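Put briefly, the fold is written as integer tokens. The lines below illustrate.
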Amino acid sequence: ADRLQGRGRVIGLDFNDDMLRPASRKAQRRRASVQWMRGDALALPFRSGTFDRAFIGFSTRNLSDLRAGIQEMHRVLKPRGRLVILETGRPENRLVLAGYLVFLGTAARLLGLILTGRLWPFTYLARSVQAFLRPSEFVALMDRCGFQASCIPLSRGLAMLYLADKPSG
């Protein structure tokens, strides 16, 4: 929103009002020009070919129908538009992967319980990370949905940056 300097619109969308309220307050504090709205990623409330860019962070694995969500993001992008996804990763190094999975299943859950008093979100996090597609599988799915996709491992593969371009025409 800051980079556009009023020359475009930025819309933030989430299914959960509990996520929208703090996001809206944060944007107001920064005086960022973002329109926040509640919506379902599987049925985006926008016309086809509306957006130049779409971004999703650490939420793709939460979609109840991953293929439908990717297809819906493809639908709302203009030709030559880009989908950028930041998601948890699956390190290729077996030792790093083993440590990561042990951390998610033990220390992350314990820290989450201590800090928030709630265990289930951190149990869900560990399960959803383990169940999510491998990077090559996710890239292949995005390609099948009409994108030309690639991925860049971040932090030794603990996170992945996916870039998916919608071809022109």
In short: The two ends are 28 Å apart (CA to CA).
